[in-house]
Write a structure and sequence with these properties.
Belongs to the Frigida family. This protein is 57% helix and 3% strand. The protein is mostly helical. A two-stranded antiparallel ribbon has the order 1-2. Strands 3-4 form a two-stranded antiparallel sheet. A hairpin with a 7-residue loop joins strand 1 and strand 2.
Length: 519
């Protein structure tokens, strides 16, 4: 029995060992399969990347060869281009010197008749101080200055130097009269950025270094602490725009902190030049933050300009922003009229708000060439309707104010009597004649008669005398007073009344019998 028990225990231990080894083999098999799958995946990934690298290398070889060929051609043509540039500079220099030495060109042309000629005269002499001061004095001709300044700067020997000299003179020798003249520098700097205002010119390194110094001087003079309490620096609207124009025109983005430049853009994003300047400076992906902030603050129109110049229309569809702005403006206009109980003032404010929004949308669509994506025909009809309603509200007030008085119809008749105009008389002239138009009296209805009594209170001026007093009064005659009397009292003329006269009009005089009173 003991041997059998020992044998069964041994068999049981062997079976347990076999089961343990079987489980180990199964786990090893699973681990091997997972490792094999992982190795296969890595192999496929490496193979794919290797093939992609081979394709990139194959495509890179032609482009590299093209770049090498282009560089070689530029190297070969560098001497010719340098010679051509030197010849052009010499030709321009000789022409300017000949013009300066000419007797007729020693004094500037008449600025009243030849504005462009005078701008060109300053620019070709590189008189930056005289140029910006002359432009500042001609703000009334701003439309002509925009084109004339750009052409004059292009005609100068060194446009970047002329402009940076003008900015420096503006800072060092300002005109202290409290007038904002930053627009003059903006016009000069804009002439360096091309017609679109988004392309910086090629500037010599020496001019760029001078521009850095001038920009730092500008920042020091016009910079101030921000109101956010974070201790950062900021600028006013026009000063910030001019500073960013300097950065864009002379490619100074690497010389200043990007955070500071972005802060200026975000603070003054509502200025129409900021979108162009952001593109000229080189911001693109960074402008998404500015656009998001503008959208969140209900400034969709400004955001669309940034989208247009930054090329982020796929990320921020302009048509959806326009629809959102239009709907928001209509809701706001409706709320204003509703809160004001549709009073005339509330309706006027509501219509003005809607018209402003419609004009902004139409201008934005035309400026950004969005006619294919957003139709403005319905908006233009709505704007025309609102403008017509506004004009109609103004016209009745004007006509009512200057309208002549119409005669009031007399009771019992459908029409008013038409009287001839009164004749002018001087202090020495008698009253109007009563014999010119006696037929007019027939228009007066029998129910009412108009009588003119010479004195106040219905008497002829003898009211202060006693009844027994005779003789005419010495009081000078006064203007006739008009009264309307019914038929039942016609003939009851107050004591002392003289013949009834229609002094206000050319009626014949009528003599009524005077009542007899004892004298």
């Amino acid at each position: 029995m003991a041997a059998e028990a020992l044998a069964s225990d041994r068999i049981k231990r062997h079976i347990d060992d076999l089961e343990t080894q079987h489980s180990l083999l199964a786990s090893c098999i699973l681990l091997w399969k997972s490792l094999s799958n992982r190795l296969d995946a890595l192999h496929q990934t490496i193979t794919g990347r290797s093939e992609a690298l081979d394709a990139d290398l194959q495509s890179l070889d032609p482009s590299t060869q093209q770049a090498v060929d282009s560089i070689s051609q530029r190297d070969f043509s560098l001497c010719d281009r340098e010679s051509a540039a030197s010849a052009a500079i010499r030709e321009l220099r000789d022409a300017i010197l000949a013009e300066i030495e000419h007797p007729a060109a020693r004094r500037p042309p008449d600025g009243e008749t030849d504005l462009r000629g005078l701008l060109r005269w300053y620019a070709r002499r590189m008189d930056s101080a005289g140029l910006w001061r002359f432009v500042a004095s001609r703000r009334r001709t701003l439309g002509m200055l925009r084109k004339g300044v750009a052409d004059a700067v292009d005609d100068s020997i060194d446009p970047p130097r002329l402009v940076i000299d003008a900015v420096e003179d503006f800072l060092v020798h300002p005109i202290e009269d409290g007038t904002d003249r930053n627009w003059v520098l903006g016009m000069l700097l804009r002439s360096l950025l091309g017609s679109e205002g988004t392309k910086a010119p090629n500037v010599a390194e020496s001019i760029r270094e001078r521009a850095v110094v001038v920009a730092e001087l500008w920042k020091k003079k016009f910079g101030r602490k921000s109101e956010g309490g974070e201790g950062g620096e900021t600028m006013g609207g026009s000063e910030a725009q001019t500073f960013l124009q300097i950065v864009a025109a002379f490619d100074l983005r690497p010389r200043f902190e990007e955070e500071f430049l972005m802060m200026l853009l975000m603070e003054h994003a509502s200025r129409k030049e900021m979108a162009k300047l952001a593109s000229a400076i080189g911001f693109r992906e960074q402008l998404a933050v500015v656009i998001d902030k503008l959208i969140n603050t209900n400034k969709e129109i400004e955001a669309i300009y940034f989208v247009h110049y930054s090329g982020l229309s796929n990320r921020f569809p302009p048509e959806s922003l326009l629809k959102e702005y239009h709907q928001a403006s209509r809701r706001k206009a409706s709320s204003i009229s509703k809160d004001g109980n549709n009073s005339p003032a509330a309706l006027r404010e509501s219509n003005n708000l809607e018209m402003t929004a419609l004009r902004s949308i139409i201008k934005c669509v035309e400026s950004c060439n969005l006619e294919a994506k957003f139709s403005t025909s319905e908006l233009k009809r709505r704007l025309a309707k609102l403008e017509k309603a506004k004009a109609d509200r103004k016209n009745p007030a004007v006509s009512k104010k200057f309208r002549s008085k119409r005669p009031v119809p007399i009771s019992g008749t459908g029409t008013a009597p038409t009287f001839p105009a009164k004749k002018a008389r001087t202090s020495n002239a008698p009253f109007a004649s009563f014999s010119q138009n006696s037929a007019v009296a027939s228009h007066i209805p029998p129910a009412h008669h108009a009588y003119g009594f010479p004195g106040q209170g219905g008497s002829d001026g003898r009211a202060s005398a006693s009844y027994a007093t005779s003789g005419p009064s010495q009081i000078p005659p006064t203007a006739a007073q008009w009264y309307y009397m019914d038929d039942d009292i016609v003939g009851r003329v107050p004591y002392g009344g003289s013949a009834i006269s229609y002094g206000g009009h050319d009626y014949p005089s009528v003599t009524l019998g005077q009542p007899s009173y004892p004298h």
